Amino acid sequence: MIEVAQDTLKKQPVSTGQYEYVQASAESLPFLEDGSVDLVIAGACVKSRNSIILFVYDTCVVAAQAGHWFDWNKMWPELARVLRKNGSAAFWIYSEFRFTRYPSLTEIINAYAQGTDPLNSVGPYWQQPGRSILDNHLVEVPDGNEVVPGAFSDFERIFFTGDHFPSLPSPRSWNDLLSYLNTWSSLHTFRQHNPTDGENPRGDLAVRFWKDLKEGVEREEGRVLEGHDEVDIEWPVAMIMIKRA
Fold first, then answer.
1. Contacts for 223-230 with beta carbons within 8 Å, 24 or more apart?
2. What's the distance, Cα to Cα, between the start and end of the chain in Å?
3. How far is residue 4's CA from residue 9's CA, in Å, rounded to a whole number?
4. For 54-101, what is each residue's pLDDT tens digit?
């Protein structure tokens, strides 16, 4: 990913020199000087749980869907080091998706995503404790001033459910939802441990889960759904925001 981004920059006909892509551990940013940063946007990296991609701009530090992997006893000191006075930081994640109009399906989702049955749930195959921290909306993340006393101000936790702005990109159809389910890292690990699961006549674990959800909505709506039909789901969002004192 980082190589593609760097190569794309090199191919630009005109370069302003304003952008640089650097891969690093979230807790160690040696390429940034003390008090030099107002804005860092950090996006989660798939292959290495603590690696992030950094974009340095002007006003705040933002970590998107990555903060549940950080070692905050190291992350807060590093943020205190690189942020300028009054520089800001924001970390946000989305937790488990749900069908707002069909709360009866929540039990099925929880059993699949957080259950303990190693043959019928991906719960045992998540990397921990990161996944649990995400499921609990970052409440285990300590206040920055508990780790670096006096370094930060305006520590705030914000939680969004239902309609809120900005809205997250969401699967538009049932087929899209199945494609999304197949991206879960826990599912890939499950398949490594259960290579014959795909022989189930109802399909592999993700397909069976998808069918259970779809059939649940069909019972609620009293009609048969096709794969191209619209699906209505939401993700609760949690955010932590702070300012450098």
1. 225/174, 226/174, 227/173, 227/174, 227/175, 227/178, 228/173, 228/174, 228/175, 229/173, 229/174, 230/172, 230/173
2. 34
3. 9
4. 444 444 455 667 888 899 999 999 999 999 998 888 888 888 999 989
Cβ proximity of 41 and 59 under 8 Å: no
82 and 157 in contact (C-beta within 8 Å)?
no
What is the edge-to-edge ordering of all strands in the sheet holding 88-94? 22-25, 51-57, 39-44, 60-64, 88-94, 237-244, 152-160
What angle (nearest 5°) sits at the alpha carbon of residue 26, between those of residues 25 and 31? 70
Query: Six-digit token pair at 174?
Result: 């049932």
Residues ≥6 apart with Cβ < 8 Å to 8: none
Q: What confidence tier does 49 reach under pLDDT thresholds 50, 70, 90?
A: very low
Which of 40-49, 103-112, 230-239 has the weakest average pLDDT? 40-49
Instruction: Please calculate the CA angle 198-202-205 and round it to the nearest 5 degrees.
Output: 50
Tokens of 159: 């939680």
Bridge partner residues of 157 (DSSP): 240
- Contact present, 220 and 104 (Cβ < 8 Å): yes
